[in-house]
Design a protein that fits this description.
nucleus, 8-stranded antiparallel beta sheet, Chloride conductance regulatory protein ICln, PH-like_dom_sf, alpha+beta, PH-domain like, globular, two-stranded antiparallel sheet, cytoplasm, about 230 residues, ICln, about 25% strand
Length: about 230
């Protein structure tokens, strides 16, 4: 499930406070960078705050408003890079792309809106602008390290893609008498009627069915020959 960018207000301590982390599940604080402005989409920069980087997420907290804060899991960040090109953005920053559940049209439209209403579920770009640009390389290295700690989960293939069969499965299919030619053709090195050297009733039935077909063909050929001599 893609979470995307979300509001974050869980703080502890006095003043601006610090974010509450999920220590019970192993979340640890990796880096704290004060004096960072956040830019969401094409909106104006927020007033400077403090960036907290943990082993699982980024948390930005405003220094002047305890009710203002944003967070995004590393699993929802599809790209992060250092941007120093003034044509791309006026200030050196860390540029990130965020995966959301909104479709592309909705996401693009939200980025261009600069009104008071902000739907974080449609924000696909975020820039982190430190007051000290010399910290960009350090931030980028920590981003990379934490991203490696949060690899994308591997989707398990469905049962329909499972092409490995056990001997018991093959014998069970043979006993049903369905697709017997397919089962045999998939194992041409074994003699007909044998599976791992064990002879059983199901395989014997297969052999008898094949032999019966041969006998029927022979009888038809004999009948045709007799008809030709008459």
């Amino acid at each position: 499930m893609v979470v995307g960018l979300r509001h974050f207000t869980e703080r502890v301590g006095t003043g601006a406070g610090e974010p509450v982390l999920d220590a019970e599940n192993g979340e640890e604080l990796m880096h704290v960078q004060p004096g960072v402005a956040v830019v969401l989409g094409n909106r104006p920069p927020e007033s400077p705050g403090t960036l907290y980087i943990s082993t699982k997420q980024l948390v930005w907290l405003s220094d002047v408003d305890r009710e203002k804060g944003y967070a995004v899991d590393f699993l929802s960040i599809s790209l992060h890079a250092v941007s120093r090109d003034p044509e791309a953005y006026s200030s050196p920053c860390i540029y990130t792309q965020i995966e959301t559940e909104a479709d592309e049209d909705e996401a693009e439209g939200s980025d261009s809106e600069c009104g008071e209403t902000l739907d974080l579920s449609k924000i696909t770009e975020m820039r982190l602008v430190p007051s000290d640009p010399s910290q960009l390389d350090t931030l980028f290295e920590i981003f990379c390290e934490c991203a490696e700690l949060n690899p994308e989960p591997i989707e398990e293939e469905g049962e329909e893609h499972n092409w490995i069969f056990s001997a018991d499965q093959l014998e069970g299919d043979a006993a049903e008498g369905e697709d017997s030619e397919w089962q045999i053709s998939q194992n041409p090195t074994n003699s007909i009627g044998y599976s791992n050297g064990d002879h059983d009733l199901a395989s014997t039935v297969l052999e008898l069915q094949i032999n019966d077909q041969r006998f029927e063909d022979a009888e038809e050929m004999e009948h045709d020959n007799d008809s030709g001599h008459q």
